[in-house]
Amino acid sequence: MRDQFGRQINYLRISVTDKCNLRCTYCLPTDGLEWIPKPEMLSFEEITEIVRQMAGAGLTRVRLTGGEPLVRRDLPVLADMLASVPGILDVSLSTNAVLLPQYAADLRRAGIQRINVSLDTLRRDRFTEITYRPGRFFDATLEGLAAAEETGFRPIKINTVMMRGINDDEFADFAQLTRSRPWHVRFIELMPVGRNLHLADRFIPASEMLRRLESLGGLKAVEGPIGNGPARYFQYKNAAGTVGVITPLSHNYCDRCNRMRLTADGRLRTCLFGSHEVDLKTPLRAHGEVLGVVRAALDAKQERHWLQLGTAAGSGGLSALSQVGG
Ligand code: SAM
Residue 36 in 3-state DSSP? Predict the structure, then answer.
């Protein structure tokens, strides 16, 4: 599958639910959003059929995301179904890890190889401030990370949204974590969407993040772990893991984009941002075929996103990334 600019598209991020067990300040508003009604949600069979058709045209990698994917019942069953699709080489998961102690072994058996864990703070009290959940959720997250490591997921990447005055005094602590653990901590720039614009002054550009990481001493650029993403990686001397930055705002990497996104109710987004969704559920339920619609959507995939700090104008009407899966 190629888009109109010749970019090869081989990666699909699948949001399996818009619901989450956390309420991270910058992501899901504390009063929630209008949830997708159950009949509108794609079933496991429908998701697998979409992936099967895309795999026939060149899709090789999928990632399960959300909302929080592990709040969707029986997620390992879906992982197993997707890993069994001919042509799919890699099934991965993005999770907040709260439910990982329960599911890690089943997910691994189902064929998931790689896990990304979102964790914005290493401090229990601050976790509550950011996620609006009690400290036991923080404990569960750390247990989830340990379970991921024990169960043999490799590589383990941690996604950290760094925000000025909220958690940006923790660069040294996260750096220290990569010295002792073989984990890859990626610092992500805060992306402005409809419901988090009040946080615009919390934005920290990756250039500043890197300066602050470098000031800790002994940092050098490295290749980084395998993956499909746009992160740039660095390593401290003798560290077991790496640190990285992901720069959706300050350094647009759209020219290397290889991805599409599927929402839990069957809308295909060929860019995280912008107003260009197409409905796959209706043709799928009507006559079982989606590839024509997918190809037409890729022919119209925009060259780049137009996200801008302090305004939701470029976000394509998104209220929160929980609606798409990040
Ligand atoms: N619940 C799963 C998780 O925690 O990884 C998957 C969904 S979550 C929406 C995916 C990622 O998007 C998380 O790492 C989260 O921190 C990130 N994210 C959400 N809103 C964001 C924003 N406005 N700017 C930057 N990253 C954001």
Answer: coil
